[in-house]
Amino acid sequence: MLKEYGIVIDNDDCVGCNLCEVACKKGNNITSGHGFIRACYASEISSERHGGCIIVHCAHCVNPLCIVACPRQAIVKRKDGIVQIIEELCDSCAACIKACPMGAIQCDAETKVARKCNLCSNSLESGVSPVCVVACPYNCILVGAVNDICETIRKKRFLNWYHASLF
After folding, report:
1. Which of 29, 101, 149, 157 is spaced 20 to 30 A from 110 at the CA atom?
2. Dihedral over alpha carbons 81, 87, 89, 90 (to 10 degrees)
3. Does 5-164 carry CATH code 1.20.1050.10?
């Protein structure tokens, strides 16, 4: 059975160190602008009061709006759940950038094509975690098979509840 990959961020544990973004930029040869993942203070994104950091990244949506918006069909959702841009088909119209609710797609200044996170798919297929996961000192970024991530979250929530109920 084919794994369906996903990414989940635990914003409660994120301290905004930006090591995920630094690793992403280095691993993807991004020389200017943001990485494909970035830590933002909540006030940078929304006027609603929220403490701490929010990680902005591609969610590899179940029904990606970027795919619908792309007139060149340059964005595909692979069978393993990873949403990927086929750079050779991209004409830099920016329709996907406008359609993405996460603000996770950017136009490469040098190549003039849209780029986004692909979960470091080459590494992931070889059993190696994406660079953002490896770089995060607080283990806030969970990437892997969706079922495995769900199980990890269930265990973590139970442990948090258990420790909180001790007092």
Report:
1. 101
2. 100
3. no
